[in-house]
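Review form for a predicted model. The reviewer records the input and the model, then writes brief findings.
Reviewer: anonymous (R2)
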Amino acid sequence: MSADVKAAVDAAFREEWGRVVATLIRVTGDWDLAEECAQDAFAMALRRWPADGIPRRPGAWLTTAARNRAIDVLRRRAVGAAKLREVAALSPPDSGSSSAFEPQTDHSGVPDDRLRLMFTCCHPALSLEARVALTLRTLAGLTTAEIARAFLASEATMAKRLVRAKQKIANAGIPYRVPPAHLLPERVPGVLGVLYLLFNEGYSASTGADLVRQGLSAEAIRLARVLARLMPSEPEASGLLALMLLHDARLSARLDAAGDLVTLEDQDRSLWSSASISEGVRVLEAALGQGRPGPYQVQAAIAACHANAPTADATDWAQIALLYGRLAEFLPTPVVELNRAVAVGMARGPAAGLVLVEELEASGKLPGYHLLPATRADFLRRLGRLPEASVAYAEALELAGTDAERRYLTRRLEETRGAG
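Model under review:
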């Protein structure tokens, strides 16, 4: 298989997986069938595209292949002519009709198939974690391992949770449809959680060769824009969009020419997107103006502190530490505690930050989380305690999930060992 075909299939998976699955769920009402047929379509692409060439419209080709596979399965199940006709109505890419592949609007007012399916998946009968995990797996195409790392859980545990969530949907008879508009707000937290984790997996991948998976983060921003326009009275939707824009503004500076990680303090700020920063700040100010702060707005405010600092030394770390304290009121999680420790260490000195990190380690709340020993290592390095820092860097290196992070930690490890 040529590199071009492999790259095309990989790109199609990133860009089209959610669209193909969402379309099939809409017309079949069968979650597992949609995912199975989508997988078959991508497998067929790997076999066919090397000989037939990359199609002009990969998404249409894949949807048609998945549709044909679904028709075959439904025929074998003998589910009835009506459902077969509905699935067959998906237009093939050469028919001149593209209605099956374009966003559709129903009585809910949600104008995008994938966003509509996110609301459908985020049924209140499921736990918030189950809603987010199941939607990430089904519509974003994230692997169980990637989702597990996002939730700081083992892959086996997450696999069981996903199975239980699907079983609950089947046993409870939860319908595959978007609720009416007046019921959408109760599902907003789950949808926001999906978009947040989808963006994070794209902005800072949990595993693999690439730290950044720009297709995922771009798709999360696109859907967040749709959601913010759809629900202008939900300040957290705008807060999440602002957060994404402010982080995405730094994307070009996060990796060097060799693909290695560049830390925030060392980034070339001239590479940051001033347009994204301006938009993010504008969206955030409008959200905060509604007087109902929430965790996404607070995180966006933290990102704005970084984005508005002309240099790393000019960063208002004291304000950031206060904002993390506020965030902990909304999200009392160990990851927030760790980030607050970083901010305190930058505002008051590494010794103050190290105390908080060691307290967090002693609590045992973040087992296997590589950023915990990495943060401890950084504070130890700043304090000149290099032998201890090298041990902590080695521990973080064992836990890191991406090649870029491992290369960064390796450099730090070599620096501390060499200086020691």
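Findings: Residues 93-109, 205-212 have pLDDT under 50 and may be disordered.
Further findings: The radius of gyration is 23 Å.
Recommendation: see findings above.
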